[in-house]
Amino acid sequence: MSDLGTNYLGLELTSPLVCSASPLCENLDNLRLMQDSGAGAIILPSLFEEQISAEGRSASGVDGTEMRPSPMVARYFPDMQQYNRGPEGYLRYLGQAKKAIQIPIIASLNGVTPGSWLHYAVALQEEGADALELNIYEMPVDPIRSGAQVEQNYLDIVGLLKTEVDLPLAIKLSPFFSAPIAFARNLADTGAQGLVLFNRFYQPDFNLETMEIEPGAHLSQPGELLLRLHWVALMAGRVNADLAVSGGVHSAQDVLKAMMAGARVAMMTSVLLRYGIEHLRTIQEDLEVWMQEHGYDSLRQMQGCMSLRAIKDPWGFERASYMRVLRSYTANAQ
User: Fold this and answer.
1) Which of the pair, 30 or 64, is modelled with greater confidence?
2) What is the pLDDT of residue 65?
3) How far apart are CA 199 and CA 171, in angstroms?
4) How far is CA 315 from CA 129, 143, 175, 186, 232, in A?
5) How confident is the model at residue 245 (pLDDT cuts 50, 70, 90)?
6) Helix (H) or strand (E) holding 268
7) pLDDT band at 101; cut points 50, 70, 90
8) For residues 287 and 2, is the Cβ–Cβ distance under 8 A?
């Protein structure tokens, strides 16, 4: 049997298959089934900064007043007080989950300001979270706010969080930074032990009849994996942080590609929502069959084998690859 073990955020995992945050993670029986089906770790859904601040306190007793939307904007916010059981209920569920399963559980926070809500991470650590994933879900809509200011906000939040807890910290990034590798290195230098590539910004639609904006959540498609593979392959070995692929992972082949690009884990949600939690078993079995057929004894043997860290001129390689793609398409079209 092939060794599927990997290390992510300093945690020894029996498998690179990580169940990322979804409604499936809100039930203890589902968590047990994920573990039994081959998951290496589980990420709980995010608790939002707005929820913590709205309680008027954080886990350490500090007043939380950062997120106060204007009255005009406030009406767009849904009632989030009981989302994910609310701050206190989230802690209770985390404690119950730690008793129910043995694989690592990664808690998650979602926020955009460097405020007192970050103290809540202390309670997550005390309740037994094995690591923390921080989802800084910010759309830079201010026309006078520069990219450098957006990046500095990320760094400020990470820096403050690292003063609060000793938990291993992963940052979930969007693909829209102007210089992702340099920014990733800055995040690692500030204290991020892991980077999750990438966040999926939900894209609303316009209703032409009601003249309203309609939000919608869509499951990922396998084609979304390509963007993740590209940037993981560019960052692997050049950024001092563990890399995770999130988005478009639907099969054992997708997991293998993520590992070869340089990822430590492959996170999945959509495929489990579509086919059920037990589909993890199929993916794990397919992984083992492929590895045996291709002479791999362990997953670690292949991690990063197709990254660009061995290429002396990545910039030139990227330009050359781009031109080859264009030339190939033209030749095939004739």
Assistant:
1) 30
2) 40
3) 10
4) 40, 30, 18, 20, 15
5) very high
6) strand 265-268
7) very high
8) yes
For the record, the structure tokens of 204 come out as 């609303």
For the record, the structure tokens of 164 come out as 């609060």
The span from the CA of 230 to the CA of 258, in Å, is 10
State the amino acid at position 244 in one-letter form.
A
Cα gap 199→139, rounded to integer Å: 12
239 CB contacts (<8 Å, ≥6 apart)? 181, 184, 185, 188, 195
Report how many helices (DSSP H) and strands (DSSP E) the chain contains, helices first.
12, 13
First to last CA, the chain: 48
Q: Where residue 50 falls among pLDDT bands split at 50, 70, 90?
A: confident
Contacts of 102 (CB under 8 A, 6+ apart): 35
Say how far apart CA 261 and CA 236 lie, in whole Å.
7
- Provide the whole-model pTM: 0.87
Token pair 């129910």 is found at 100
The pLDDT of residue 82 is: 53
334 has a pLDDT exceeding 60: no
Residue 18 to residue 30: CA distance in whole angstroms: 14
Alpha-carbon distance of 110 to 157, in angstroms, equals 11
Question: DSSP string of 162-201?
Answer: HHH--S-EEEEE-S--SSHHHHHHHHHHHT--EEEE----
Look at residue 279 and give its three-state secondary structure: helix
- Structure tokens belonging to residue 36: 């039994």
pLDDT band at residue 64 under the 50/70/90 scheme: very low
Between 43 and 112, where is the model more confident? Answer: 43
Residue found by looking up tokens 């957006």 in the block: 150
Which H/E stretch holds residue 86? helix 86-100
Total number of residues shown for the chain: 334
